[in-house]
Structure formats: structure tokens, C-alpha cells
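Priority: low. Protein: RecQ-mediated genome instability protein 2. Input follows.
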Amino acid sequence: MDYSLAALKLLCVQLGSARQTPSQNAFITLGGIIFQRAWLQGILVPAPSSSDGDESGRFLLDDGTGVLELFLSGDFLSRRWEAGMYVMVVGAYVVRAGDLPLLKVHKIVDLSPFPDRESMWYLEVIEAFKLFYQPLFEE
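Result:
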């Protein structure tokens, strides 16, 4: 993981345009921007049961524009995460063909006690796009 690359503030719908680069470093490109980590916020929703019955660390995040799968490991599994929580997640984005996008979470924070965070998040993503990402898309 290259931590010198910023985690992009994104909406789930934007991840649909992300593509894996042919590099062995697992870089991903979105409109010419190279990244490995994504920063999203949304509501935890119940994950459907997997065929092997292993539900540990599997959650879905719905941000109103789409859904992606979250994979939690380590200390995050000892916390109590419940459907309906509004959370902020940062993690390694994994492009998967024919399946939900996957985020290997390395930071998750429950923002449920702060009801204004959801509306503020959309403004933050729009501002980041206009200031930082849009100029690169237009090149």
C-alpha cells in the first residue's frame, strides 16, 4: 500500500468507472487519477448470507448512490457494528468484475451521533471533485 497517495473522497457511483491498472502494485485509475484507497460515508446495511456461512467482517455500505461490500478485520471485528449506523470508512479499494465493489477497511468511524454529517458529506465530495479531480478529468 502506497500511503503517499491520498484516499479519494468518493461516492459509490463513481467507483463504477474505476479501472485496475496493469501494474503489479494494485493501483486503480479513475479518470486519470491513480489511487489505491477510497474514503466513503454511508449507512451500514445487512449483508446477504454467503454460501460458506462465514459472516465475520462482512458488511455492506449504502451511500444513496450505490452499494459496496466492506471487509473488516482485526480490531474492527471486536466492535459492535449494526445495520443503520452512519459510518465513515477508508480502505483499499478492490475492483471486482461481476460483483459488488470491495473496500478492505483500515479505518471506520461511527458518525451516527452527528446527524448533519450525511448532508455535509455530499458537499465535501462535490467540492473535492471540483477542486482536485475535475481538472484531471478534463485533461
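The helical segments are 12-15, 117-137. The chain has a mean pLDDT of 85.
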